[in-house]
Amino acid sequence: MPLALRSSRIDGMHSGPVLAAPSTRSPVHPNLSSSYRAGPPQTVIIVMSHTATKAEIDAVVDRIEEIGLKAELSRGEERTLVGVIGGNAYAYKDAFSHLGGIHEIIPITKPFKLASREFRRHDTVVDVDGVKIGNDEVVVMAGPCSVEGEEMLLETARHVAAQGARVLRGGAFKPRTSPYSFQGLGESALKMMAAARAETGLKVVTEVVSPGDVALVAKYADILQLGTRNMQNYALLQEAGRSGKPVLLKRGMSSTIEEWLLAAEYILSQGNRDVILCERGIRTFETATRFTLDLNAVPLVRELSHLPVIVDPSQATGRWSLVGPMSLAAVAAGANGLIIEVHPTPNQALSDGAQSLDFDAFDHLMADVKRLLGAMQKQLA
Ligand code: PEP
Ligand code: MN
Known about the structure:
The structure is a single chain. By secondary structure, this protein is of the alpha/beta class. The chain has two domains: 42-108, Alpha-Beta Plaits (2-Layer Sandwich); 126-375, Alpha-Beta Barrel (TIM Barrel), CATH 3.20.20.70. Helix content is 29%, strand content 19%. Strands 9-10-11-12-13-14-15-16 form an eight-stranded parallel barrel, surrounded by seven helices. A four-stranded antiparallel β-sheet has the order 4-5-3-6, with helices on one face. The chain has a two-stranded antiparallel sheet with strand order 1-2. The longest helix has 17 residues, at 359-375. Bound molecules: phosphoenolpyruvate and manganese (II) ion. Phosphoenolpyruvate (PEP) binds next to loops.
């Protein structure tokens, strides 16, 4: 039977054709956490009317600051939203009721605010120097787990670019489980990534493991990757939030979706709106695969948050033969992108060889992804 397509998603929040959802009920998430149900809402969003003037918006912001709270503006095509952050803003909601230009005051019930769909109805599209992540196109990021040298990096970059990848991945600072494993080539690897960008036009994503390295990595990278082992390194999250660079935030391997979105909140609350979430597998009782890819997270996070979500099937499965099938599943689930480990000779890789695709396997994956996107009436970015 052909796949049924329809052109709107839940609540009309996303655009573009997707696989038909089984029902038109609005989504409910009864068991996410008690904080979704219990307790008074603490934050409010002030929805300005579409005729609100700049002076009216400024007056609302001034009032928020007078009370000692923080205003976070989100200017949409039709309306401006003002998030009131900090303290128990809800208790002050009457402080705004006499001001002009306000359409509605909405309490935010989620513990994460700036990351929530309540705060921003429309999908955030992160623009990495022209490569857009978060719209209806699917972005492929690919490259070696670790940058091992200039030759292998360039060879891989050229290959993945020719197949339609837009972003080159590669670790310069590696957070290895064992201190005796290869730790990455550091700044010289960053220079190699920058050289590969200059030659291929690919954007560069690479991990930063400590707050003190953020400025250095930001000098070379287009996207800062924060790894699973650092998802709750709050000093690192904040420093990345101040870097001025888009951040790829991996889900902690033992973190709940709520903790993950709160980690994103740390970055957003520094004024950085360019957060890309990455589901990369979680720890379960299963040991047959390296982690368990939680694909529930993809559509759920897209309901709960406006942030783009990509999937890393390489870390999640730990087995190269599963990377293709789980990439397709991720795209079918609505992921905004994929990040894939590719190595010219995976059996000689200094890290994660078992989960790395060789060039042939990557070509097959890209052909399959393109076919699936065709059926979904979508395309590669
Ligand atoms: C990686 O991308 O190579 C990596 C170490 O990722 P994660 O933090 O998801 O394990
Ligand atoms: Mn890896």
